[in-house]
Request: fold
Amino acid sequence: MRVAIFGTGYVGLVTGTCLAEVGHQVTCVDIDQAKVDGLNHGIIPIYEPGLEPMVKENHAAFRLAFTVDAASAIGQCPVVFIAVGTPPDEDGSADLQYVLAVARTIGRHIQVPTVVVNKSTVPVGTADKVRAVIAAELSARGVDIAFDVVSNPEFLKEGDAVADCMRPDRIVVGSANADSVALMRRLYAPFNRNHDRVVEMDVRSAELTKYAANAMLATKISFMNEIANIAERVGADVEQVRQGIGSDPRIGWHFIYPGAGYGGSCFPKDVQALARTAQQAGLEPRLLNAVEAVNDAQKGHLFELIQRHYGSDGVRGRTIAVWGLAFKPNTDDMRAASSRRLLEQLWDAGACVRAYDPEAMDEARRIFGQRGDLVFCDSAGAALDGADALAVVTEWKPFRSPDFARLREALADAVVFDGRNLYDPAEIEAAGLAYYGIGRGRSL
Ligand code: NAD
Reply:
């Protein structure tokens, strides 16, 4: 099937590549000329495991094209995806300017009956807005071309995006139109062989499903962080509590890790946007507000532990090694990452940072630029050189089993602040290091 996809970010590029991988003819459109030029020369703008070879192979096989020319991309395509960003507006609601700009472009250029598929995370009612914009453009052109707008929210996880896209656990299709649903089923058939993963529903429910999923996951994290903070104050170890509750299948093992707060491009903005949706509908979203407030406080918790160790003005003049800048492992994405809060707090308190991340160094250089109180290091070991203490912010695999004797030797103050509870306190203390984790009853 011929497919056009607007947006070559995490969602658009991965979706386009996976659709090409199973044999569809995909053209990805972006307004960022440099990104498109790069992709046409095999330069992948993001880090996602497995993505680069797939992009190159499908591009070389002429199943995957990249262009800024929207008109030619839309051409005779029966299906056009919208996969552009929906960043938070000033009041936290989703900013739809990019989605609606694409809708205008689609209205200007479609030539044949088209199913417009919205993959961006958008508030309930957006499909109606997209529909109205396209209809207005068609009417301005004086043409009558049939089209439908389907909601097909994306559930991929950054860091695992290719695998999620190739083996989705569900494919939500929101539409009232049986022909559109049938087309979506044909498009996704290669991903849907083992058992039926397509969940059909109405458009508004599909739009809300995406927010409900992210809000639920964010709630689990904030809940666990609150339990961790209680554990810390009452001398319990949240890691033991986690083992104790995760074994209950009604609770489950996933997403109950306490830590330095959730970040990324989705949870923070989606929880806020859903809260705004609730408010606009006349409902005070008390739980969502609490989820956000707990997370916001949690992002400052690692710094509180550092300050607790050193005393109120004791952080000044220290050098802290920071392992992990990305908002989670296996990505270079630093949007709303907890590391950003920690670094700002350390700098405000007069500390220097020696930072290392396996994939996010270029992104960090872009965000922070050159500054005297930040040294970008080539390896985890290099970040320790000349540091007083270590703070672990992202649970990358290579950070999970360090040589504690080497840490003891390298860190002048022999102290580790473990923002992801990667280490066994007894083991690390036996190596002669002071240890602070999240909710481990030892941080008082
Ligand atoms: P992104 O910021 O990585 O990429 C968006 C891309 O759209 C950019 O390359 C930008 O240049 C391009 N763009 C903007 N306006 C355009 C236009 N008019 N025409 C063509 N291209 C245009 O965004 P993302 O992370 O891929 O997210 C896209 C959407 O998917 C968002 O709504 C997001 O909430 C949702 N989502 C993201 C994830 C994730 O893990 N990143 C997961 C599920 C859903």
